[in-house]
Structure formats: structure tokens, C-alpha cells
Design goal:
The structure is a homopentamer of 339-residue chains. Chain A is mainly α and 339 residues long. Chain A contains 13 helices and no strands. In chain A, helix 3 (78-99) runs antiparallel to helix 11 (234-254), helix 5 (119-143) packs antiparallel against helix 9 (183-197) and helix 9 packs antiparallel against helix 10.
Chain lengths: 339, 339, 339, 339, 339
């Protein structure tokens, strides 16, 4: 479920972001605590080995190794690489949200231009809107784990009332190995053309406007499909992951507290737990987690788009728009500011 | 209220930005002074403990700790993380402003295409524009604290003349749990279709243009709703907040003035108040405040969008455009450059 | 006046950017020399105090202070903050230029679709274009200091031939406290509708195209107005200004040449004037000046948009397009490549 | 073939990016292993020379050289240059993907507006779609190595059924030395006009909508062609390559393990293989490889667009859309939510 | 001429960018070698003075100066300033390319909608397209040095067949001091309106589509003109140039090899030529050259847009589209996949 906190930060008061730190759902803690535990355990393990298991000579060697690791770890430009990478992931994430197809615009046109209060007309309007929703769900099934779990087979779509058994039969009969999300769009076209021929749509401008709007929706579906198909190049993701992981591997050794008695510069204190390294882990790996969460916003993370909610909302609003709301205007009366 | 200072910086003269530092409303001082006070007090508290309450041995330990904190605090890439994060927040902030629906374009089409000077025609035009404004206000109520305070219940909308009691009844009668901001849009559609049937709109091209413009407005409302619904991932905000806060926690200890007599490098002077750390606090936390202010521009910060002003302005200009200005052209005369 | 140097840098030759350093108008020197003078004088003042007025003990203290300031000044991430801020300002600057309304597109439609060579038709076409220009100028008056100086009162617009006295009267009679730049747009609509009724515009597609184009212009005017109204958040500008100014305040002390005899590291030489600090001043404050100049491109800086030129050019080209050029085609003849 | 891993990272779990490190196809290892081998061999070669072939005096000199190289290598801003460059390349890469022409939208219009179930009408519809696909393939042939290999001559297009022999003859007869990808577009126009004249397209709005859509496709083809023609300036690519390569050349010497007995600071240990330098090589050169892969996404890299798949998919879906799906609507029945 | 190397980097193989380093045309070497020579000569001159002409005391002073310069040169954030500046220049460069007007889309509409195979109709179609090309060339003449050289006077346009003598006469007769590139657009409008009146264009939708497309082209011309008129603020360019040049001025002194016998830290070796400083010069000044080349892409650099090629290509394709290709469809036959 999407984590909405806009209202919480409406006003910039005393530490308004500070309060966000106290949340659990969708929080960095929930995402990170396992990694942080593993990191801490590895660190402590190494620490125990250094303190209790090594002999003096090995200790000296380990200390040199630690200083060496500490020095070179700082050459890894983690923040730089992460900054550019996360910016890219965030822009794709928003691009994907903007490609989510909303049938509202088409609802306006179908509800307005397909005339007639009889059952046949109602059937046309409702069926048109159902086709649009069906196209969207077909795309969602191929990109969203949540929707796929809800509709594991096409049969489930029939049961959910998104398509009829006959439609499923025709869809499956079509000889094509490629994604068939566009087939309901073509049915939409054919049905619209019939409505024009039968005069339910009474002019060509409206007809073209409807088809144009359909095309916008189809393009958005295509775009969602493309975002899924053309991932960010694997190499980029690997480069970033290697940078972050290798930095913290180096820190495991390099940030050990060395025996203050040896007098290494910067090693006067022994805190047992390297609080600043844990903090760095916290926000570097946390930053990487931002990317992990957003790179595919159609998963089931706390912060992913609620696709199933979208499916339900869109179907309901579509049908209401073209049926209950058809030709409905409240009695008009003069408004308060009349003259 | 939005803080406008464009005119103040129209010309780049001697220190034209400098003068901006002397403002209070919407200023960094107003936003920050409480945090700065808290930080200073904590710093002074620690300073007093170090200077007066610790014994010699504890002092030496504290000094080592301070040097340790100072060293590691510099590893926290605050400016980097903030730079990328604030850039993102600013781009969303402007994206939200660009999604604010203005009914002006629809005013042009309704005022032009819905013909007739009789009361019925006036009623149609005014009602159409009122529907549009109502849709906007319904969205604002769900995203803007200021508008919500002004219209805490739907009844207030009726009193404000934005909707009639009958419209409220029909709106509430509609069986849907989702946001109903789109319902006035559908009334708009139905009323437009009637106007077409009755011949007040006398051609199909105009009709389609009006519905198209309506759809643009509806999409903008949807976009505002989406910006509110899909916040920036909580994790990102938390990462940035943790980075900034932990940096200044480390500074509380690390930037203490240590006893110059101990001869620690860089600790030759004792100023009691760390002016540069306060400056850093000033612009790092100030930068974070930019994000806090902009992340939800529909709050009541000094710099947030004046949604209530928008509501009033849009209603007034809408009604003037389609009623007073209907079919009004000043007597034409030859302009000065004629031949 | 805008400083155009594209032609100067058409080819990347030996030091083609170097020649740009030799310009005065719109240059960094012209913008900076006063600030640079003040900075140098303050620096020299402090230098004189240190060298001649302080006693030995005070000198030692001052030296410690200088080293302290020098160290901490480097912690201020001036270049980082400036980089992000200026990028933002530049993108808004270009966004504003792209919102400048050009009546050319409307000239094409009005010149093409409003038929008739008689005086009445000419009057309609010229008046339509004048309305558009008037709307633009009304906006410019509220955002551009240069245009406001040229037309300090509405009466000046009448004298300049942009509106008639009757139009001014009607404009002022309209009961609205909000900006009335949109009123000429509504006159345009009414006049266009009349032209359609009278048959001067002979089809509805053209009519809708004209109104659509009008709406684009109106949106652009609105956008200019919005850029003016919604400034970059004051806090951001203040953060950047504080960062830059405090950096150079710290430099005033921290970059003093200390007595080489004291043997402070890095203080072996005494040049009296810190050439590199002046250079830093030059490009850091210069970079800030880029922001100062661009943050409001409708002022009277050397590099601001020439709004008055725009007003003149647009009026002239508009009237020529729809009047002199109306129905004008040179005698056609076969071109050189015929067969 | 495009490497899709969206599904793999749908949820941000424990180390979800970590698993991506274990892939081979499209991975950084596959791209880098040769460069890494060469680098390692050169490093070892130099190491052997230093350890076994140089005499004492030469060793001392080499050591000084190594320290010198190590110091200055750090002045090369590799990460900075790479960050900006890769961001640019990625944005062009996505821009190219967004320019890929999909005939789906045109399929909707042709399938809807070109009426008639007879063979002549089917022929018109199929031929129209074939022209569009042909235009796309002509562009692909000039920019994509994969498509060029599949259709090395125009004759291959005829064999593949994308054009007829007669069409090829006419295409080649046209006297123009420029790319002729637009010729099938003009055939499309002529054929559409005939369909309008013959009444298969029965209104002018539809006609204009079709031509408008055709123009969108043509513009996209043009854009693909432009991306190919206007490469990123060679100088930029060279600057980045020189920065990365010279950094690692400097590392070859500067990161050698020097004789710990000489007591150079930071040279207390001898690991034979510089693990951190190899890591740096890994992600700096890996980052550059991201650019190498994306700068021309129409090659045959693991991560390039699958143009041949696109060609097949588009042809199949186009023909299905306008032929099998023509006027096809499943029997309508009341949906599950009826009343 | 544009330097295209897309095909060279289609596949990311072993060092595929490395091969790009071996090019001369459009290369960094060609652009930089003079600057690099000058820099090297200045460096050597200073080196000779230091080694042979200064006495011991002066040498010691020079050495201190060198160390001073070296230290402060590193404070100049060259890479940062360049990164942001070049990103900006590159985005404007691509923005300019996207504003280049292609008459192809208009060719589709004119070729389709202006009916008639007789000479008069051909003349109308060819003249319309010639007007469009003429508008483009008028803009190019004012922004592109290459096109201006080709057509130094308007008379040359007549000779090149782009306009007739009569058209030139009328153009010059028009009383306006502003750029007249829009005049052929107005002729286009008038001629289109006549074609509509004469029935060659047989419907209003087509007419409006043509005028709309014309407006797109006109806007693009305007945009090119604006990019030329509104340069990047001179101050920004100067700031960047000063930063880069002053950095290398400081390097001239600061990177001199000092007498190793003096034992300055980091000055143990004497290589005579500072290879790393030359490398830095190579990519910092090279990066600046990217900006110099792209800031005005209508010059005659190796990498600038080939405007003259564009002029020729566009004229040829325009005329072919509307004349040879008019109403031309190859004989239709069943495609390979029929049933």
C-alpha cells in the first residue's frame, strides 16, 4: 500500500520531518533492519576474532589491514554514484505513475456522446468502459505482482466481471504470441463504429474524439509495458550495488576499533560498536533501498502503487460515469451570486 | 500566503539578494529560530557539563570523543544528499503548481459557444462554470488544509454558493466510496449535451472542444490528487532527515571547544559559541526547511499556494467571463496605426 | 537589453570563449566591480589593523582566529549549493521565456479565416489582433519594470494606440479586484463569435481553432503571471545567499597573510592582496550574480528580456499579418526545379 | 536482447539487488572481464618488473614515481565527469526508446475508419498498415545493425513480405539521394485519399485524424534518424574516455605495493593484488560501460532494444488489428454489476 | 559537418570507446592542440626561467610561490562549475536541434489535401512547399554562418530557386524593420485560402489541419530565432571561463617541478613535463571545448548541424512529396501473409 504522509507535512513547523522518523510502515527501519543486523553481526564477529582469537603478530597484521581498508574505502564514491542513480530511478518511477491509464477522460466522452437511455444504449456504454478497464487489467497482470496474484488465470477475470466467457474465448482464439492487451481496444473500436452507424453517436467529430482518447489510453498501456520490458540497464544497477556493498565490506574491517595502546592515529577510543559506520550504513544502504523500492513500483512494497485499488476504483467510476450519471443534471437554480 | 519577491530582485544591483536577508515573513529565520535555539541550548548544556562537571579523567575522555565525532561527522555527505533531495522536491512542487486547474480556458469556450442572452442560457453558462469550480474545490478540500478549514463540511460549500442543496443531495446519494470530485464534471457533460440538443451550442466541433477542455481540467484535478496520494517515498525523506540530524548530533559533541591547554591540533582558541557550526546549522537545516515547506505546498506555510484565494478568484472570473462579458465588445473604431 | 553573443562563438576556435572575457556590457565585471571593491577594502582594512594597530598579543590571537576561520570556511559547501540553485534558476528563466506569448500563430488564423477585404472586415481583424497584444501588455505591466515605466498608467496604453478610451472605460467598469488581463481575451471571443455569425468566419472548425489558439495565449499570459507570483521560495534564496556571504566573511579574516616569521604552515609568503581569494570571490559571487540576473528576467538588467521591444514587434507584425498581408500572394510562376 | 529484471526486483526484500549480482547475461562481468584481465596482467607485469628486474636505485626511483602517480591520480575527477556524462547518455537512450514508432494507434484509426468487408477494402487496410511498417523498417535498416543484418538488401524486404517488387521498383526509381524512408508514407497518403474519394473513409474528420497520426509516426522515424545522425559530440565522449583511461594508467603505477621496508606512509602491507583498485576499475569502467552500451541502443548488446522483435510484432499486430479484428465485437451481454 | 559515430559504438565490446580516441575529425585533439601547445610553451618558459635565470634567493621565493599556487589552485571548483555549465549547454544544444523545422509533415498534408493533377494545382502545391522552405532559409540566414555564407544576399536566394524576383520585391517592400521570415508563411496562408475557395482543398477540417501544421513550423522557426537571440547569460559563460583559465594560470606556476634537493614534500622527482597537469588541461579545457562547440550549433565546427545539407534535403523532399509522389500508389496486391 502506498504510504501517504502529505498531510503530516503540510506545514513546516518545529521538526515536522522529525516526526516522520517515528513511523514504521514504509519506513527505512522496516526495510533495513535485517541488513543492519547482518552487518552488525559480521562486524562483531570480526571484532571478537580480532580481540580474542588472534595472537599478537596476527593482531598487528590485522591492524595494518584495517588501516589500509579504511583508507581505500574512502576512495569509493558511494554518495556520488548513488545520487545520480537514485535520481534516475525516481524519474522513471514518476514516469511510470504518469503512464497509469485512467479511464476517466474516456468516461466523459462515452457518457456524453453515446446517446440513448434504453437498455441497448446502456449496454453499449457499459461494455465500452468495460473493454477499457479490461485492457488496463491485462497490462497490469503482466507487470504487477499484486494484480497477477489476484487474477492468476484469465478465468479469474471472467469471474470478476471484467470480461465475459465469450470474450475470453475470442481473445484466446486470436493467433498471436504477443501480448493481447490491445484486443479489447479493437473491440472498443468496432463497437464505437457500430454505435456511429446506428446513430447512437450522432457526429463524426465526437467519433474521432473518442478514438483519439482511446489511443491515448492504449499508448499509456504500451508505455507501462515498455517500462517493464526495458529495465534500467542491469550494468548500472550492478555498478551501484557493487559500489555500496564493497564499501561496507571494506568498512567491516576498516572501521574496527584497534587497540588504543598501539597508538594508531585516530584510534584512541574503543566504543565496541562503530556508531558512525552504522549511521553511514543507515543512509547509504537506505538510499539504495529507495532505489530498490522504486525501480519496480508495481510490486508489493509498502510504497508501491496500489494497483488492485486502481482496478476497482476505475471499474466503479467508469460504470457510474456512463450509466448512473448518464444525462443526469440536478435541477438548475440561480446561484448565490446571480446579479 | 505566498511570499512574492520578484519585483524586489528585478535588477541585479549591489547586493540585491542581500536585501532579501532582511525579511521576516517566509524567511529562514522565522522557520529556523526554534530549532536553532534548541541546538544552541543543547550545545551550551554539553559545554557546561564538560567545563564544570567532569573531572580531569572524564574531560580527557570527552576530548577524545569530541575529536572522534568531529572526524566522522565529516564523512556524512549532508550537502550531497540534500542537493539531490531538494532538487527532487522542488521539481514536484512546481509540478503541483502546474497541475492547479484554472477554469479560464473553459470560460472562453463556454462564454463563446453557449449562445443566448435569455435567463435560461445565462443559467446554463453560470451553472457550467460553477460545476467546474466545484470540482476544483472538492479536490482542494481533500489536499489543502487551508481549504479544508474553510469548508469543514460539504454543507459549507452549499452556504458558500458553490453548490446547491439539491446537488449535495445527489452527490451524497451516489453509491461510491471513492473521491467524488468527478461527479460535477459528469453533470457538466450532461448539461453540455442538453445545451447542444437544445441548440444553444450550435455545432459539434464546439461541443467536442468543450468536452476536451473539461477533460484537461479533470486530468489536472486527478494529478493534484495523485501528487497528494503518491508522496515522495517515505524512505527517501527519512534518509535525508537522518543524515542531517545525525550530522548535527555529532557536531554537538564534535564541535565543542576543547581546553586549549591540552594542545589538540585545531583547538587553540575558545570562543564558547561555535559560530561556523551555527552557520552550517543555518544553511543545512535551512536547506532541509526548503524541502519541508515545498513537499506539501497546499499547507499553511508562508510560502504555500494560496488555495483559498484561488477558489475565490476562479469563481469570480468564471462567472464574469460567461455572464457579464457574454457577447460584450466595446464599440470598434480604427486604431492609431490604421494605414 | 539582451546580450547576444551567439555569433561570436559560432565556431570553437583558439580561445573563442576567451574573447568573451573582454566584453563590458552584460559582463561579470560590470555586475561585480562594486562588490569586489567593497570586499577588497574590507580586506585591506583588516590587514592594516592586523599589521599596524594590534599589539603582539593581539596579533597572536588574530592569527589563531585567522587559521580557525580559514579551516572552517572550507566546510561551507558554497559550490554545491550554488550549483543546484543556479540550475534551478536557469530552468525557471528559460521556462519564463518559453511562456512569452507571441501573437504570430493567432495572426495566421485570423489573417486566414476572417474573410473580407472591406473596411469592416479589416477593422475586425485589426481589432482582434490588438486585443491579443493588449492582453500581453497588461500582463507585462504587472511583471516587467521596463514596461511599467513605459506605461505607468492605463491612460498611456490608450495614447500608445493599444486600447481605445471606450475599452479602458469598460475595463475599469468591470467589478473585479483581480488582474483583468483576461478581459480583452473575452472581447476577442465575443468579436470572433460575431464574425462567425456574420459569416466572415465561414466554418466552425476555423472558429474552434481560433478560440483554441486564443486559449494557448491566455495560458501563456497566466503562466508568466504565475512565475511572477510564485517566486522561488524565499528560504532557498536566503540559504544560498547566507552560504556565499558567510563564506566570504570568513575569508576576510581567514585569508589574511599572517606574519611569515611566526612560521604557521602555509603562511610563508606575504602578497598583501590574496589573489586566489579574489578569484574565488569573482566566480562564486559571479555565479550568484547569474542567479540574481535570471531570477527575474523582466527587470532592466543587461541580460533581461527586452519586453518593450517585444511589445512593439508583436503589435507591428500582428497588424501587418492580418492587414497588409491579407490575401496577398505574389504572382505564381514555375520554380527553378520544375520537371 | 533486452535484459528484463523488473519482476526480480518487484519487492524490496533482503538484498533484492544483491541477487542481481549473480547474473551473467547483460552483466557487468560479461562486459568487463576482458578489460579487467588486461588491467590485471599489466599491473602484474609492472609488479614483476619492480620486484625482480630493477636494481636498488631503479627501485627507489620507481617508488617515487608510484607515489607521484598515486597523488595526482586522485586529482582526476573521474566520478564527476562520469556522473554527468552517463546521465546525459541515459536520457538520450530513453529519448530514443520513446521515439520508436508503434503502428498501434494508426491501426485503431485504419481499422475503424476504413470501412468495408470486401476484399478491396481489406486490401486497402492491409496495404496501409504494411506501408507504415515498411517506413519503420527502412529507418531501422539505417540505424540498427541487427535489422541491417536481417535485411542486407532491399530485396530481402520483398522476400519478407514487407514490400512488393513493384513497390521496390518505384522506390528505387525516385530520383533522390537522401533517405527514402518517407516514400511509403506518401503512398499511404495517396491511398488514404483514394479511400476517401471512393467513400471507404466516409468523413473528413477521420481522414484528417489518420493523416495526423501518420505524421506522428513519420516524426518519430525522423527522430530516430536524427538521434543516429547527431551523435553526442565526439569531444565529450573523448574527454570522458581519456579521463577514465588515464586514471587507470596512473593507477597501474601509483597503486603498486611498494617495499614495506622502505617505510613509505600507507605502504605497510603487501597484498600483491590491489583489491580496491580492482574494485574501482570495476565500477568506474563499469559505469563507462553503461554509457558504451546505451549510447547506441540499436546495436546487438545484451541490453539493446530488440529491433527485430519489434519489426515482427508490429507487422503482426498491425495486420491483425485491421483485418481479423475488423468490425469484430463479441456478443454483448449484461455485465456482473448491472444494476 | 556533423561527426556521426553511432555505428562505431553500436556494440559495447572490448574498448569500443577506446577506438574513438584514434579519430581526428571533430576530435578533442583537433580542437585543443593549439591551446595545449601554448600552455606547454608557457610552462616550459617559466621552467627555464626558474632553473637557469633566477638566483638562489629568487629560486626560494619562486618555490614558495609555487607551493602557494598549487595549494590554492585546488580550491577552484573547476569540475563542479563545468559539470553544471556543460549540462546546461548540452540541453540547449539538443533543444535547438529539436526546433529545426522539417517540412515533411506539411508535405503530407499539402500532398494529400490539395487536389488536382493539372499544372495549376501542381504550381500551388510546389509554391506552398517552396514558401515553407523559404521561411526556414530566412531564419537560417540570420543564425547560421554556413547558410549566410552560401546566401550572402537575398539575390542569392532568387538564384538558388528558393524565391522569385517578384517575391523578393514584395518582401522588401514590406515596411518593417523586424525579421521578415514570417512573410512567406502569410503568403502560404493566403494561397491556402485561395486553394480552399477554388475547391482544390475540399473541406474545412483539412484547411485547419494545414494551417495548424504551418503554425508549428512557424513556432519552430521562432524558437530557433529565440535561441539565437537569448544566449546563455554572458555572466555564466564568463564565470566558467574565468574559473578554468585561472586554474591553469595557477597551475603554470604551482605545478612546476621544484628542486628536489630542497626537500619540499611531494617534490622528490623532476620530470620536466608535468604529465598529469597536461592531462588535466586535456580534459578540463576539453570539457570547456564541448561547451564552445555546442553553444552555437549553427556555426561551422566539425560537430555543428549541417544546415546547408538541411536546406537542400528539405527542398528536394518537399517538392518530391507534393509533385512526383502526388496521388502515386503502386499497384496493390495481396501481401504474403494474406490469410
Amino acid at each position: 500500500m502506498t504510504v501517504t504522509y502529505s498531510r503530516r507535512v503540510a506545514n513546516a513547523g518545529l521538526g515536522s520531518f522529525f516526526h516522520l522518523l517515528l513511523r514504521w510502515r514504509g519506513s527505512i527501519y522496516k526495510l533495513l533492519y535485517r541488513e543492519l543486523l547482518i552487518f552488525t553481526m559480521l562486524y562483531c564477529g570480526l571484532s571478537i576474532i580480532y580481540r580474542f582469537l588472534l595472537n599478537e603478530g596476527q593482531k598487528r597484521l590485522f591492524e595494518k589491514l584495517a588501516i589500509y581498508c579504511d583508507h581505500y574505502a574512502e576512495l569509493i564514491p558511494v554518495s556520488f554514484v548513488l545520487g545520480f542513480y537514485v535520481t534516475l530511478v525516481v524519474s522513471r518511477w514518476w514516469g511510470q505513475f504518469e503512464s497509469v491509464p485512467w479511464p476517466d477522460r474516456l468516461g466523459v466522452l462515452v457518457g456524453g456522446h453515446v446517446r440513448g437511455g434504453d437498455e441497448a444504449a446502456r449496454l453499449v456504454r457499459r461494455t465500452l468502459m468495460r473493454y477499457i478497464n479490461l485492457s488496463g487489467v491485462l497490462i497490469y497482470r503482466s507487470i504487477s505482482t499484486a494484480v497477477y496474484k489476484r487474477f492468476p488465470t484469465m478465468e479469474h477475470l471472467v469471474q470478476a466481471g471484467l470480461m465475459t466467457a465469450e470474450e475470453l474465448r475470442q481473445l484466446e482464439a486470436l493467433p498471436s504470441t504477443h501480448s493481447k492487451f490491445w484486443v479489447p481496444c479493437m473491440w472498443f473500436v468496432s463497437l464505437t463504429m457500430r454505435a456511429r452507424t446506428e446513430g447512437r453517436i450522432n457526429n463524426d467529430v465526437a467519433l474521432t474524439a473518442i478514438l483519439n482518447e482511446l489511443n491515448s489510453l492504449r499508448s499509456q498501456c504500451m508505455k507501462l509495458y515498455s517500462y517493464d520490458w526495458i529495465s534500467l540497464p542491469l550494468v548500472y544497477t550492478q555498478v551501484v550495488t557493487v559500489a555500496v556493498y564493497s564499501f561496507f565490506l571494506a568498512c567491516l574491517i576498516g572501521r574496527q576499533f584497534l587497540d588504543p595502546a598501539q597508538g594508531y592515529p585516530g584510534h584512541d577510543l574503543d566504543f565496541y560498536l562503530p556508531i558512525f559506520t552504522l549511521l553511514q550504513f543507515f543512509f547509504y544502504v537506505g538510499w539504495l533501498k529507495v532505489a530498490e523500492q522504486l525501480i519496480n513500483p508495481f510490486g508489493e512494497d509498502d510504497d508501491d502503487f496500489e494497483t488492485n485499488w486502481l482496478v476497482d476504483r476505475n471499474l466503479q467510476v467508469s460504470l457510474l460515469s456512463v450509466d448512473e450519471m448518464y444525462d443526469s443534471v440536478p435541477v438548475m437554480e440561480r446561484d448565490k451570486y446571480w446579479n
